[in-house]
Amino acid sequence: MAPTLDGSSPGAVYNDANNTTTSVVTASFTPPSGAVIVAKAATADSATLSVSSITSSGPTMTSRVSNAAGSHCALAIYTGIGTGAAITVTANFTGTGAQRALIVEVWTSAQLAATPATHQLASSTTGAPSDTITTTGTGSVVSWLNPDWSAIDGTSRTYRSSATDDGYHFLTGFYTVYNAYQAAASAGSQTYGLTAPTGQTWNLAAIEIQASGSAPAIPPILTMPTRRA
Amino acid sequence: MTVRGMSGGPISTSPWVVEIWDYQHKMISITVPWNTGTRAQQGATLHRDSGCVYTWIILGDPNDPANTKAFQCPADGQADSTTSAQQLRNNGLTTIDDVVAVQVTASPVKPGG
Question: What residues of chain A lie within 8 A of the CB of B20, using their CB?
Answer without folding.
Answer: 11-12, 167
